[in-house]
Design goal:
It is a single chain. This protein is an all-beta fold. The N and C termini lie far apart (40 Å).
């Protein structure tokens, strides 16, 4: 059974930084593509970033490119999202997700990020 638990969200002023973590249970983490998504109030969930199983390949949404960095520690079964230069429009619930077979089959419960102007 795969479980994903996000942490690290909170309230931050515009221009500030936060680091989100996603702790995964099970052995599938090390062989899975992992991603971060977010959902703002009244909007659909949107892709933020993804990382290959090895960490050697990353991809970002244009809206966060150059400000956010996705990374992983396979020894700790943990995924990270370093968020810098935060903007009010980054306010959302952030979710991590696991894609062991090409689709995001497992999701965390989400962590709230609020950026004040």
């Amino acid at each position: 059974q795969v479980q994903l638990v996000e942490s690290g969200g909170g309230l931050v002023q515009a221009g500030g930084s936060l680091r989100l973590s996603c702790a995964a249970s099970g052995r599938t983490f090390r062989s899975s593509v992992m991603g971060w998504f977010r959902q703002a109030p009244g909007k659909e969930r949107e892709f933020v970033a993804r990382i290959s199983w090895s960490g050697g390949s990353t991809y970002y949404a244009d809206s966060v490119k150059g400000r956010f960095t996705i990374s992983r520690d396979n020894a700790k079964n943990t995924l990270y999202l370093q968020m810098n230069s935060l903007k009010p429009e980054d306010t959302a619930v952030y979710y991590c997700a696991m894609a062991p077979r090409g689709t995001y089959d497992y999701w965390g419960q989400g962590t709230q990020v609020t950026v004040s102007s």
